[in-house]
Design goal:
Radius of gyration: 33 Å
Keywords: DNA damage
Number of domains: 4
Number of strands: 15
Distance between the termini: 78 Å
Structural class: alpha+beta
CATH superfamily of the largest domain: DNA polymerase, Y-family, little finger domain
Oligomer: single chain
Number of helices: 12
Strand content: 25-35%
Shape: elongated
InterPro entries: DNA/RNA_pol_sf (IPR043502), SulA_CellDiv_inhibitor (IPR050356), UmuC (IPR001126)
Order of helices and strands: HHHEEHHHHHHEHEEHEHEEEEEEEEE
CATH architecture of the largest domain: 2-Layer Sandwich
Organism: Sphingosinicella microcystinivorans
Protein name: Protein ImuB
Pfam families: IMS
Helix content: 25-40%
Strand order of the largest sheet: 9-15-14-13-12-11-10
Largest sheet: 7 strands, antiparallel
CATH class of the largest domain: Alpha Beta
Amino acid sequence: MKGALRLAATDRHAEALGLLPGLPLADARARVTGLRVADHDAEADRHLLERLADLSIRYTPMVMPEPPDTLILDITGTAHLFGGEDGLVRDARARLRRHGFTVRTAFADTPDAAWALARFGASSVAALPVAALRLGEARETALHRAGLYTVGDIVYRPLSGLAARFGAEAATAVRRMVGDAESPIAPRRVLPPVEVERRFPEPVARTDYVLGVLADLLADACRMLEARGEGGRRFEVAFFRSDGKEQEVAVETSAPVRHAAPVVTLFAHSLARLEDPLDPGFGFDAVRLAVPVTEPLAPGQPDLDRAPPPGPALHALVDRLVARLGPDRLLRFHARESHVPERASRLRPGSPSGSWPVPPPDEPPLRPLALLRPPRLLSHVVADVPDGPPRRFRLGLHFVHIVRAEGPERIAAEWWRRPGLTRDYYRVEDESGRRLWIFRHGLYGREETSPRWYLHGLFA
């Protein structure tokens, strides 16, 4: 029987017939003729639970899915927005039931207690069975043999004796249940540094009014950013409809921003570009704005008319193009963690990220902006052995004589990717004043392949 197929979940009609999860499928079919069953899809259940967690963010950003069928919500500081805890749970129940879900809810001071009260339907933590501690079948049986059937039988006894007899995990489970040990929530979404929202007493069906609310929220968020000494790089808005649908739109900026007007313009362009236009349906009942990515931003000096200082023209142009055309239509170089020159940058959509190396003041750049791909092989190279710079080489049909050289800059191969040879880079200048970036691929007498010389870049 251990290898038999068993029921993983049942609906209320099946439960009324005595069919419960864990029952062997053969026994279930023997009890009910014409029983309809479907294979359990654990992955689909997980995706559904995560989707419900995303929808529950309308109540609080602190939402943790707990497979296979539980959501833990920390509603501290948010219940009053729905008329209290009872109002919040009524709203959540109504929305879930409209989609065909059976819902059991419970309030408690700890996540473990809330889960157990909803699961077992007990009136208090003390009345919960010891199975609520989730210690496993073996320890549950051992607790029963010791005459301990409920959490109340345990919680008033010295926990040191419980730990000595049933293990430290049993004592920790009791402490977590009553709040004497930490039981943190790991939310599905990381809380953003800045977040503001507006809830409406009645659903609002006017899109222009909701967009005006978005502008007000942006102004509030920018004031909060100013108090933090930061600017936003990414702004995300979520529109919550009364039928449970949520629509999200995000914009990014090339530089940190804390003035609402340019971000309002970016959202206007992004909303106009949506394939699925913003549809109020039966009305919006909430709008939430988050700023998940921020960067330090020093205070700016306003003009005499108190207008905000204008941002760099290039950043503003990039932001408008991305908002109008989409991030995939505008590619920019992004810095990447690699010493290998051809891997030190990459083209990615949207605004640039990462810091670029800056040469010391009054010093020429260490590397050229223009690289040859692939590097050009040089012939007839005359160089000081083993580590000296080239003195002469042939480039195309002409010989090049070097009058100045700096280096080497030694770059080892990225061994974690694939084996390769060491490179020694030199900044050189020829008789005509051209400045070139040249490297020797391989080391004389220390690597198996004979070294070769390449031209990799040209300095402006």
